[in-house]
Design goal:
Largest sheet: 6 strands, parallel
Shape: globular
Order of helices and strands: EHHHHEHEHEHEEH
Length: about 200
C-alpha cells in the first residue's frame, strides 16, 4: 500500500502543544485563558486576533519544529509498515510562517532533520499547501492518508480513504471514507485490516 502521513497533529500532538504553549502565551501576554478545543485554529481556540496569533507562532514555532517529540510508537509502527512492503509518503503543509530569522528558508531541511532524529523513515517527503494535499494523494497513488485537519480530512476523503487521527477539534468529522484511529498502534491494526478489505 502507499500510505500518506501528515506531520503536525499526526506524527506530533499539535493539540497538546497548542494548549500548553497557548496558555503559557496567554499568561505572558496577560490574556484571558478561555479555551475552545473544538477548533483547529489557534485564533478560534483562544479567541486571539491575527496579531496575537502571529506573535505566538513567532515565539514558539521554531522550538516546536526543532524539538517537539513524535507521538508514542509512531516511528516503530512506520518502520514495521515499511518492512511489510508499504511505501510511506510524508505529506505536510509545513511552511516558513513563524520560523525565526535564523531558520527562515530552511523548513524542508529542518523537517528532514527532525524526521531523522525521531527515527521516522519514509520513501518520499512532500511539501504541499493544504489545498494541494488531495492532488498529491492522487498523483502518488495514495491508498490511505493519515490526517488530523478537519478540512483536509473532508477534502481528501472525497477521493482517498482517510484514517483520522482523533483529536478534540476533529471529533465531528465523519464520512463513508473516514476511519478514526486513537493511537499509532491502532493505525497499524487498521492498515493491516484495510489490506484485506
Amino acid at each position: 500500500m502507499n500510505i500518506g502521513i501528515d506531520i503536525d497533529g499526526v506524527l506530533t500532538d499539535i493539540e497538546k502543544f497548542m494548549i500548553e504553549y497557548g496558555t503559557k502565551f496567554c499568561l505572558e501576554e496577560d490574556l484571558e485563558i478561555n479555551i475552545k478545543q473544538i477548533d483547529y485554529s489557534e485564533m478560534v481556540m483562544f479567541n486571539w486576533t491575527q496579531e496575537q496569533s502571529d506573535r505566538f507562532w513567532n515565539r514558539y514555532f521554531t522550538g516546536y519544529t526543532l524539538n517537539e517529540t513524535q507521538r508514542k510508537f509512531a516511528s516503530e509502527v512506520i518502520n514495521k509498515l515499511r518492512e511489510q512492503g508499504n511505501k510511506i509518503y510524508i505529506i505536510t503543509a509545513r511552511n516558513e510562517y513563524g520560523l525565526s530569522e535564523e531558520y527562515y528558508g530552511k523548513m524542508q531541511q529542518l523537517t528532514k532533520e527532525w524526521l531523522r532524529k525521531q527515527n521516522i523513515t519514509y520513501d518520499r517527503l512532500i511539501f504541499a499547501k493544504d489545498e494541494e494535499k488531495i492532488s498529491q494523494c492522487l498523483e502518488n497513488n495514495i491508498d490511505v492518508m493519515i490526517e488530523d485537519s478537519p478540512r483536509n480530512i473532508n477534502d481528501i476523503s472525497r477521493k482517498v480513504k482517510v484514517i483520522k487521527y482523533a483529536c478534540k477539534y476533529n471529533e465531528d468529522v465523519e464520512g463513508a471514507n473516514i476511519i478514526t484511529a486513537y493511537s499509532w498502534c491502532h493505525i497499524y491494526d487498521l492498515i493491516n485490516k484495510l489490506k484485506y478489505m
